[in-house]
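YM 10:42: Diacylglycerol kinase family enzyme sequence, as discussed on the call
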Amino acid sequence: MSDSSETGRRKLAAVVYNPVKVELDDLRPVVEAEERAAGWEPSLWYETSEDDAGGGQARQALDAGATMVLAAGGDGTVREVAEALQGTHASLALLPSGTGNLLARNLSLTLNDMEHSVHAAFSGGDRSIDAGLIDIRRADGGHSKHAFLVMAGFGIDAKMLSATDDDLKAKVGWLAYVKAFATVLRGDNLLRARFSLDGGEVRHMRVNTVIVGNAGSLPGNILLLPEAAVDDGQLDVVILRPEELVGWIQVFVKVLWENGVVRRTKLGRRFREREVKSINYLRGQEFRVRLDHPQEIELDGDPLGKALGMVVTVAPGALTVRVPADVAEEGEQEGSSLAEADSTSS
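YM 10:58: structure's back
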């Protein structure tokens, strides 16, 4: 978690921005002031388009020698930029500008404060996190490979995202998803799935939703995957299979009350979790699932069309993210403490 100046890397940043979500006239002077103060070279600027949400621009930045790329846009822009950066030595800086801001929320970064986010990018430190890698199997036999940072899945979440009204989302933010969720619930949402974890036994199940996560939190303070951490080298899977109203009540109690409230307290974490039939949790490093017919699929809150299945793996520590200096220092101290504890125990 060291700054670029300590590693001897070139100090050149690039900004990949979505012009629909970002006011360039407001962002550019802030970036220019921070880059000068931190002794960085003048930043490169790349605008996203309808055809390229950030991946191509991030690769151009890498080719130009950028050692840090600031993603200024929604979750789609962040995911596309991260997909290009994962596995490289360049770091990702987040300038949250969307509705969900999923990765920023899971890293407990400041939201809706452009000046603070830009300052953290140029004066902060590095944190290594995992990336989820997914091979999507299409109905026509084709494949498409992507990276994701927070969650990927089939079912109600993907259908909800496809049904969300963009104009309403622009007006009321993530609350627009509530209306879409209520609409989707009225349809037939049962899926027939075959899945396996880490090459184990293939299981058959009628399910409602299958989500594979690299992180666990959603907007609205919803903790969907309570064991998930962005740097644990593991995938967390949740399978929802509620039956009738009782099943949905179990899901909501589990996610909104037990995960969202009880598990956030010291006392609550000491009690053994109550298992319910309507929701199953799995952990591993490779998850395969195949459906009986094509369904909507989503990655980090973005619909990616329909698919018959997916193979998901985790790439531990594959992405470097810029975080505020004090957060980086806390991480270094925590890492040192763990290392000392390991050496003492051995």
